[in-house]
Specification:
The protein is an all-alpha fold and 67 residues long. It is built from three helices and no strands. Helix 1 packs antiparallel against helix 2. The radius of gyration is 16 Å and the shape is elongated.
Length: 67
């Protein structure tokens, strides 16, 4: 089934939708980093999304500073 509707009619999503998107995007980028190897651009994007949306990752700056 295909439905056609204007996005202008849709209700605005809340912060949980943005955080959910960021979580999925971050872990997609981590899989890209795993297959491609170290890539400063991907790592920067992961850190930025992680910081902006509160998604904790193995690449989060606060985890790197613990010994």
């Amino acid at each position: 089934l295909v439905f056609s509707r204007s996005l202008n009619d849709a209700e605005k999503g809340g912060p949980e939708i943005m955080k959910g998107y960021a979580f999925n995007k971050v872990y997609h980028l981590i899989s890209e980093l795993t297959t491609q190897g170290q890539n400063p651009q991907l790592l920067g994007e992961i850190r930025s999304l992680s910081q902006n949306y509160g998604v904790t990752t193995p690449y989060s700056t606060e985890l790197e500073n613990t010994d």
